[in-house]
Amino acid sequence: MAKVLVTGGSGYIGSHTLVSLIKAGYQVVSIDNFMNSKPEALEAVQRITGQKAINYNIDLCDTEKVGKVFEDHQDIDAIIHFAALKAVGESVEKPILYFKNNLNSLLNVMDEVHKYGINNVIFSSSCTVYGEASDLPVTEETEMKEAESPYGRTKQIGEYVLKDLSGIWGTNVVSLRYFNPGGAHPSGLMGEAPRVKALNLVPVITETAAGKREKCIVFGDDYDTRDGSCVRDYIHIMDLADAHTKAVQYLLERKNTDHYEVFNLGIGQGVTVLEAIKAFEKVSGQSLNYEIGARRPGDVISIYSDYDKAKRLLEWTPQYTIEDIMRSAWKWEQDRPY
Ligand code: WQD
Fold it and tell me: What structural domains and CATH numbers belong to the chain?
């Protein structure tokens, strides 16, 4: 069966994708130096699938060490490149760290792709590339606006680099633009476990409910939306992982018509912050301690996806709702093993 190299394999999306790939019968190899993830996530992958994922604990910015991994695995059929720093706020405080880490790691991987003639690359992009879109839902043809942060800029630059390289080399590249990932593996054995304190909404909600945070601050309820709070398209991590496996199959079966293709991965539903909190309260049976605070600089007011292209071409249909996200996230938070 085909072999897939996953960079960032012990991360939130990476670890859930390893499970999906293994269950689909792929051989997997991971590169992850646990900069913002934990080795326990790979142990969870093994507990869930019964298979141990080989992981190389190296820095993807170290060209020599990256080269050694590819030398050891010259039979790679596809690469999924997750590894990147992704905290929007932190990227504003440490822009050089983000540009160096996210771009050098991508360029090192692509150097090896060219050296070994690897034909298929999947890139972890983000809806952040759209900025504040004027028309909703956003499609893959929606123009990229000015990035709201250096993090978002690294995703935009990454897409342009890959588009150019795919055209010059003939490599098949798919960029997957994630909306807002959330939730956890239904077993409760694996979930969102960053090394740094989570800043995104779903873990802030579950940590507050678990008493690990005093309260959840809603960053503004005076926006021009149905209840004044920001709108996002929350996608369950299991749906997101499944989409990656389908994207690998899509490329290996040569179904792509262009060397560079982009897909939105959201569920096409806009949910406000206050609605997300209500969904949590409904599934947990707990009222959440939250209060309305000031707007967060850089926040997009409203964004949600049109995922029809992924549905048609990747044969992918999301199965989970915001309530499923909250239910699985709450289960993870209460009994999380790491
Ligand atoms: C969602 C909404 C906040 C926390 C970012 C990246 C994106 C992706 C996901 C990597 C916003 C509100 C949040 C809180 C709040 N990352 N919120 N109180 O900013 O939409 O997207 O993370 O791929 O690329 O940009 O996610 O969860 O931080 O915010 O009110 O304590 O929840 O204002 O409206 P975001 P988020």
Answer: 3-182+235-266 (3.40.50.720)
* Residue nearest ligand 1's atom 33 by CA: 219
**88 closest CA partner among 195, 198, 234:** 198
Segment 44-76, tens digit of pLDDT: 999 999 999 999 999 999 999 999 999 999 999
Q: Which two tokens stand for residue 212?
A: 């690990």
Residue 160 annotated to the active site: no
Rounded Cα–Cα distance for residues 255 and 3 (Å): 18
Distance CA 260, CA 176 (A): 11
Among the options 130, 151, 260, 320, which is catalytic?
Answer: 151
Closest of 22, 54, 24 to residue 39, by C-alpha: 54
Peptide bond into 137 cis (omega under 30): yes
pLDDT digits (tens, 9 = 90+) for 10-41: 999 999 999 999 999 999 999 999 999 999 99
